[in-house]
Amino acid sequence: xxxxxxxxxxxxxxxxLFAERGFHGAPTSAxxxxxxxxxxxxxxxxxxxxxxxxxxxxxLHQHYQQTIxxxxxxxxxPRERLEQIFAVLLRIFIAAPDEFRFMELYYYSSYxxxxxxxxxxxxxxxxxxxxxxxxxxxxxxxxxRVLEALAWGPLVALAKExxxxxxxxxxxxxxxxxxxxxxAIRE
Length: 187
Fold this sequence. Notes:
Largest sheet: none
Number of domains: 2
CATH architecture of the largest domain: Orthogonal Bundle
Number of helices: 10
C-alpha cells in the first residue's frame, strides 16, 4: 500500500471517529484500528492527534472552497452569489454528514481558537461575499462576522436535523433554507 493510501485511511478513520465520538472519545489507538494500521503509523504522517485534527479541518475547508469556486459564477451580484454558495455548502453538508459533524465540532472547540488553528477567517469566500453585499447596502448594518453568523444559522440547523435526526431533505427544503439564510441578513 502506498504512503498516501495509508494517510488517507487514517484521515477517513479519524473523520468518522471524531464525528461519532468527539475528539476526546477517539484515541489514536481507535483511529489506527479503524484505519487498519499500527498506532505508530499515524505518527509517520502527523506529529500528534492535534496535528491530525487541524490537518483534517484544513483539507475539508480547502475542499469546500474549491467546490464552491468551481460552481460559483463570479459575475453574479452578491446576493445571487451568496445563495449559490449557501446551496453548494448545504449540498455538501447533507451529502457528507460525518464531515459536517466534524467541522461543527471543530468550530465550537478549543481547536478552532488555538494558535495552531488553520480555521479560515476573513479569507473565506462566504465572508468576502457577505462583506461585499454589506458594502453595497444589501445587508443589515452589522459587522460582517455578525452577518455571517446569522446566515449560517438556517444552513447549520437544517444540516444538524439531517445529520442527527435523519430529517429527509429534498431540493425544495434546500432552496427554502438557502433563501432563509439570505433573508436573515438582507436589508
